[in-house]
Specification:
375 residues, 5-stranded parallel sheet, globular
Length: 375
């Protein structure tokens, strides 16, 4: 009989072990959500950064409003609004360097636009015109992900591959609280921690996975606590405090960039609008709950605080509003034009080498289009 010779350290629960393999204390999330707007630390922040964050919130709110209007006009098939969650969207785009990669979910079009993608291209998927409207390689932004959390393992793989190639890239994967209940989420965190991959996971916990409240999704103290089980740092932040979200994400990105490994950031926020324009949110949440969160509106909180600090005056606020209206006007103009679509483009960029089934479908559609043209 062959003798078993363990090649790894003795697990902490077996006789002869002196200490656990990993001390969980440094990985535990913040005891309470990190906040900046109601603290004295805000005075130490760069005023230019604070005003930039405010301006982006104003533009982001108007972007959400205009996109929602486009659905009512039939210009968009569906729109998952991030109204109320703009602090997370804005901060996520700002902490990325040009060479970094963003892996967004379907609700993160504002972060994609903040990354520099044209709104028309960012909303192409939700318009129903194509699987994505922008070049992921050129924008360093993965396509919007509709299936929950399936982009998370992709973020880990890209970040790990970039590090192996010596490319100083950090990947930022965004998802909602519902995504943390998916297997892809758990697999991504496990691989990220084992590989010490330079990736940051941002979970926007808005309280509901469509209509399912968080209490029916997870019994963990916080979603950030899930990080500890995989051996990575967990952070907890007030997701409606844009300064705090920016700071926590910036710290996590720097940790990943300098070899410190991945971080799971849970941002506590709330979507003030329905899940999408097809959802009736009154069926699962009350108006009192929404009203309470409206008092914690990220734009309202930021504006009040900056005015109290004499950093924001009416002229500066008007400039931000004007920039927001300029964006809204451009969106209306771009979406007014009917797109010219090529049905055969469906078969492009599916596989490097098309499968026989895909080729069969391609030939069938080409024949149908030709027959229709003859008629």
């Amino acid at each position: 009989m062959l003798e078993h010779r363990p090649t790894s350290p003795v697990p902490g629960w077996l006789p002869g072990a002196t200490a656990p393999r990993t001390d969980p204390a440094p990985l535990l999330p913040d005891p309470s959500p990190v906040r900046m707007l109601d603290t004295d630390e805000l005075k130490d922040q760069d005023p230019a950064l604070l005003l930039d964050l405010y301006r982006r919130l104003v533009v982001g709110r108007r972007y959400n409003q205009q996109a929602t209007t486009l659905t009512k006009q039939g210009r968009l098939a569906v729109y998952p609004s991030s109204t109320g969650q703009e602090a997370c969207e804005v901060a996520a785009a700002m902490v990325l360097r040009p060479g970094d990669w963003l892996f967004p979910s379907y609700r993160d079009t504002l972060a994609v636009v903040g990354r520099g993608v044209d709104p028309l291209e960012a909303l192409t998927l939700l318009r129903g015109n194509a699987h994505t409207g922008y070049d992921p390689r050129a924008t360093r932004t993965a396509p919007l992900c509709t299936p929950l959390a399936t982009q998370a393992p992709h973020a880990v793989g890209l970040a790990h591959a970039a590090r192996l190639a010596g490319d100083p890239v950090v990947a930022l994967a965004m998802m909602g609280d519902g995504g943390t209940s998916e297997g892809d989420f758990h697999e991504a965190l496990n691989f990220a921690a084992v590989l010490n991959a330079p990736v940051v996971f941002l979970v926007q916990n808005n309280g509901y996975a469509i209509s399912v409240p968080l209490t029916q999704q997870s019994a963990a103290p916080t979603l950030a606590h899930k990080a500890v089980g995989y051996g990575m740092r967990g952070r907890l932040v007030d997701g409606n405090d844009v300064v705090a979200v920016h700071q926590v994400l910036a710290e996590a990105m720097e940790q990943a960039r300098t070899g410190g490994g991945p971080t799971l950031v849970e941002a506590l926020t709330y979507r003030l609008d329905a899940h999408t324009n097809a959802d009736d949110a009154t069926r699962y949440r009350g108006s009192d709950e929404v009203a309470a969160w409206q008092e914690h509106d990220p734009l309202l909180l930021m504006e009040r605080r900056l005015r109290a600090m004499d950093l924001l005056d009416d002229a500066t606020a008007a400039e931000a509003s004007e920039a927001a209206e300029t964006l809204a006007a451009r969106m209306r103009a771009e979406f007014h034009a009917e797109p010219v679509l090529d049905p055969m483009s469906l078969f492009q960029h599916v596989y490097a080498h098309p499968t026989p089934q895909l080729l069969e479908q391609q030939h069938q559609l080409a024949a149908e289009l030709a027959a229709e043209a003859d008629r």
